[in-house]
Structures are given as C-alpha cells and as structure tokens.
C-alpha cells in the first residue's frame, strides 16, 4: 500500500509540474500578443511581471497577498489553481506547490514540496529570452551539477535553504518524469 501511495503522489507531482509549465508559458505567449515582446515589458512595481503581464491571461481560483518572511515589508502573491496546486510569486521567482496545502508547511523542501521556477529576462543564459523556466540561475550547463551544485543542487544534503532548486530542471530534462535516482521520496 505505501508503494501505491508513493507512486500516486509522484504521478500527481509530474502531471501538475508539466501542466503548470504549460499554462504559465501560454499566459506569457498570450500576453506578448497584446503587450509586445516580453523582453520589452516595463516593470513598475514588485511582482510587476506577474501582476501586469501574466495574471490577466491565467485561469486561477484566487490570489492572496502574503508577507515575505525574508524581506521585511515585501508582499508576495499566492495564486491558487483549480487542480489543487498553487504558487507563490516573489519578483521573478515562482515557488510552485503541486499540492497547495504544502505552502503552509514549516519544513518544506525544494524538489519535494515546492518546485522553483523563474522568469528572468536577462543575466542568466538558460533563462534569457525565454518565458517561465525551471530555476537554473548560476548553473554551469553540466547536467551532473544539477545534482552536485553545493547550493542549488537536486540532492538531499540540505546545505542551504535553497538546496533542491535545480530539481525542477532535473524533472523537466527527464520529460517531466521523476527519475529513478531522484533524491526525494513522495
């Protein structure tokens, strides 16, 4: 029975990750039709990319403001989707939760409870001129370092608060399937 539950949770994560990636990037493409090339979007407020350019083209159940615990006075957005998933928008970064209930977990882990995406239009070559992509800022392009990077790598060492940030890229590069050697259990 535990294996059945674990396999079901893996399937939910895979399906919702792929769906989110598709839906959020479709919203970016639709916004470009009305607002021009995303490289030229003008951002006048925090979370402006999401609020001004993406949100109007996205179907969601509700949006809530939430205080960012890492930055005093900064407000992020919690967005709840119809399939039971949710995400938090913090400037150009997005924390996606295949199960919305995990947003309130105190011990949430990147690559298990939350998956990191980013909308970074400049500076990082694996994000430049793209829409919302799995977080790979500061990645060197070597697939092995998606696992071994001491800060962001997809592993269970918990070397920093952002360990596991590259897990989303690992899953994407595996056709939106969780690899057999994946470091986290579901």
Topology of this protein?
Layout (H helix, E strand, L loop, with lengths): L1 H34 L12 H7 L7 E6 L7 E6 L5 E5 L2 E5 L17 E4 L14 E2 L10 H4 L18 H7 L13
Antiparallel strand pairs: 1-2, 2-3, 3-4, 4-5, 5-6
Structure explained in plain terms:
It is a single chain. The model has no long low-confidence stretch (mean pLDDT 87). It is globular, with a radius of gyration of 16 Å. It has a 6-stranded antiparallel beta sheet. It contains 4 helices and 6 strands. It has helices at 2-35, 48-54, 145-148, 167-173; strands at residues 62-67, 75-80, 86-90, 93-97, 115-118, 133-134. With 186 residues, the chain is α+β, with helices and mostly antiparallel strands.
Summary keywords:
single chain, 186 residues, alpha+beta, 6-stranded antiparallel β-sheet, 6 strands, 28% helix, globular
The count of β-strands is 6
Considering DSSP H and I runs of 4 or more, what fraction of the residues is helical?
A: 25-40%
Integer average pLDDT: 87
Main β sheet profile:
6 strands, antiparallel
Please give a quick description of this structure.
It is built from four helices and six strands. It is α+β, with helices and mostly antiparallel strands. The relative contact order is 0.13.
